[in-house]
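new request in #modeling-help
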Amino acid sequence: MKRIITSFVLAILTLQACKQNPTESSSNTTENANMDIKVSGETETQNKLDPPKVPAQILDRAAKKVVVNLIATEEEGELADGVTYKFWTFNSTVPGTFIRIRVGDEVELHLKNASNSVMPHNIDLHAVNGPGGGAEATNVAPGKEAIFNFKALNPGLFVYHCAAAPVPLHIANGMYGLILVEPEGGLPKVDREYYIMQGEFYTKGKTDEKGLQEFDQDKGLDERPTYVVFNGKKNKLMGADALEAKVGETVRMFVGNGGPNLVSSFHVIGEIFDRVYVEGGTTINKNIQTTVIPAGGAAMVEFKVEEPGNYLLVDHSIFRAFNKGAIGTLKVTGEKNEKIYHKVQ
Amino acid sequence: MSNYFKIFLIFGGFFFLLNSCDKSIALDSKKDSSASIRKEVAINPDGKMLTIKGGDYQPFYGEDSTSVPVSDFLLDEKPVTNKEYLDFVMKNPKWKRSNVKEVFADETYLKDWENDETLPKDADPEAAVTFVSWFAAKAYAKSAGKRLPTLDEWEYVAMSDETSQNARNKPTYSAHLINLYNEKDREKNPVKISKPNYWGVYNMFDLVWEWTDDYNSIMTTSDSRTAEFDDKGLFCASAATSTTDVLNYASFMRYAFRSSLKANYTVGNLGFRCAKDLQK
């Protein structure tokens, strides 16, 4: 009898020890001290803002509960002037709505799949610690809704994307976006913030061939995109949609790369990034001309604009910029400063 | 000593309770579902059934060497239509929208119908019925003296295009299907307008997704990228790394769709067709 009891107790103890092991070892690292941050105050529901807009800076607010609503949609839109494509999106934009939270926040994420969708969809957020980054918890049929909770443990700028099979197709059709997890105390205050995300599209027709274009699986497999664009459309951030700033202001850009295939060499012609949060993480590199943004990765760049004029945002793999659409404009207005830049003759 | 014994009893009791809870739930649902499916009033839909000659087929999931035998069987030549389903509902009132229990069909069951006995205003009676659950599809099949096709049977027929029995290796096969699948509101079109496949079967791809009897027996894990064994699956289930044909995107879509379903789900582009054993 005694033996049975002893072995039973031992078994329970072993089980408990097993359970506790991972939590113990992880709480040794500084990041996961964030696990113990308490949430307080009113629950915030994030608004849908279309890129390149982002929600207001978090600054020093306490951690709280945040509700995020995303709707997976499949809808036809413009990929270039006169060229349409059947995009798959989060909240009807490519990239999807920018999600902005801080470490310690507890997010309740609602993923709805539009009732007129053909496909199932889900979401994998690279900011999530957990199986599939949420994909497992959110695989959702047309017309249905999935909800899952996560606590933000690591600060940084992260990609989210759909991970329903076939994954490459869901990403190639535009199902990606960025989620920013600000550190304790928030990111430093800046004057302007913009949200830019690069992605490739693979169409049967050549670049700029008019009409509705079908997805081309072979081109995707060969990594031979027809379009490489910022924010879902060729030359999207040019002309009337150009980004704006005034001389003397500091600009922060949240730049992501949805891929599905290419690595971006992000550069602003005529500017030097004063600070780059390398790969969207905590390390800050200074005085950078071009920063590499991997597929499924992101970076934050900050720079002060000193001189009025038009500054082109490009993927410096430069055919992509001038022929396939990865180009945008930052239009800076204000007083000229001849000391900084001056054409002599 | 007696304290230890008490602890043991408490623990034991606790686990016993937990277990029995589980079991009783499982039992209840079993009873319920069989009761509801058993007593269907017979219907006689007039659609043709076609003989499908069986054979070995290579499932989309599993090892390269996994080949599954499919026996000869009969399959409806087209998905069940609005008109046919209306007839079923009239003869089996418990499957009317206002009578159906949520465990058997969720809140969007026949959602687009005008009322219990009227098809949607703009719907073609000859279009495939949608917004039906797996339970409803099973009940319909039963009352028609049929059954739902197994996943293997359905996929076996899905290997064919218009001219060949196994078109899987044709480069255009998957690309063509992806385009069909990407078409919105395709479920509103009437059946039997497009061309039949090799077997004479219509509309395997161009109108609706279809329930199969064991729709969730082989499935991608809901996160399709992990190469983990899914305990629901017969095979190693992963869309990304363990399929035999990683470029068959159309199959990925079907499997992904099935894995997003529960048996009481009703979806706007999900219908079904029936099958039957071949009398020997």
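bot summary: The first helix of chain A runs from residue 2 to 26.
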